[in-house]
Amino acid sequence: MTIFANCVALAVYIPFPEDDSNATNSNLERVEYLFLIIFTVEAFLKVIAYGLLFHPNAYLRNGWNLLDFIIVVVGLFSAILEQATKGDGATPIGGKAAGFDVKALRAFRVLRPLRLVSGVPSLQVVLNSIIKAMVPLLHIALLVLFVIIIYAIIGLELFMGKMHKTCIYSHSGTNAEEKPAPCAPDGAYGRHCMQNGTKCQVGWEGPNDGITNFDNFAFAMLTVFQCITMEGWTDVLYWVNDAVDYRWPWVYFVTLIIIGSFFVLNLVLGVLSGEFSKEREKAKARGDFQKLREKQQLEEDLKGYLDWITQAEDIDPENEEEGLDDDKPRNCEYCSTIIHFNQQTGQHFTLFWLLGVILCTCF
């Protein structure tokens, strides 16, 4: 709940230029100190419970706990530095006179929602699967790059300089259309200028202010990448049809979409799905192993308590007192305590301790 409330506070906060502020931001800055105190106390208690570094299951040996610790330390450092360097005539928190500029450090507050990951195992599985998939995703990225390079070179050979002709008035030299589009010269199978006094002539920068073209390798790669993302690739297809020919350019674009988008980019989903399945199986195995260890530990504790109680019940008070008179000192407080417990409780004592052990272990 505290992490969620902190996320809401970060979303409500409105940054102003020149370190200006308002009443809402000032109140949120004061609430920020409360969140920082809560997170600091939580980290301190975890350090006490798990140990800092040198224990087998220490606090800093877990990657997500390490992230929490870094966020808390940076928050404390920025708060202390801001208060220590604040001027004498400081305005409310976040104002112009707030002393040292700690915006760079305070920007780390946006990482606080990641602290939720340390408490939600399912989120840990998702993020771990993404991290483990980085190397396979790099290989897929190289494959995508190769596809883009190959189709960019083919586009250079087929469509270089073809996207700069449009319908222009012969007498004025201005564009004949409100939204210019490529056209093909007379005799070609592209789009022709049908208005009187117009002709298809070079002089237009091209679609999308000259960005979408195949005139050089860089723009060709950009156009191919746009088509692979399937963002407006049909517009590019229609422009090429209008400028070159409507009979065969579709082969270039359809194969590009099938190979580059449907096949290669979907490999990303396949890799992520495979890594997620592996990480989920590992998380399940770790959970089963932890439950088995807890069960074994519970059985060992119960066995130890049962052995101790059995030994206490096997002591005969009369013989023990005689033995104390003959062989042992009379001030054996431990033996007297055991005899006293045995006389007072009996079987009820055994049931009470078993119930207490079970409750303490479970809760």
TrEMBL record:
Keywords: Calcium, Calcium channel, Calcium transport, Calmodulin-binding, Cell membrane, Cell projection, Disulfide bond, Glycoprotein, Ion channel, Ion transport, Membrane, Metal-binding, Phosphoprotein, Postsynaptic cell membrane, Repeat, Synapse, Transmembrane, Transmembrane helix, Transport, Voltage-gated channel. It is found in: Cell membrane, Sarcolemma, T-tubule; Cell membrane; Cell projection, Dendrite; Membrane. GO terms for biological process: calcium ion import across plasma membrane. It comes from the Eukaryota. It catalyses: Ca(2+)(in) = Ca(2+)(out). One of its GO terms (molecular function) is metal ion binding. The chain crosses the membrane at residues 33-52, 64-81, 137-159, 217-238, 250-272. Pfam families: Ion_trans. Voltage-sensitive calcium channels (VSCC) mediate the entry of calcium ions into excitable cells and are also involved in a variety of calcium-dependent processes, including muscle contraction, hormone or neurotransmitter release, gene expression, cell motility, cell division and cell death. It is a multi-pass membrane protein. This is Voltage-dependent L-type calcium channel subunit alpha. Belongs to the calcium channel alpha-1 subunit (TC 1.A.1.11) family. CACNA1C subfamily. Glycans are attached at N196. Ca(2+) binds at E231. Residues 2-283 form the Ion transport domain. It comes from Poeciliopsis prolifica (blackstripe livebearer). The keyword Calcium applies. The lineage of its organism: Eukaryota, Metazoa, Chordata, Craniata, Vertebrata. The keyword Transmembrane helix applies.
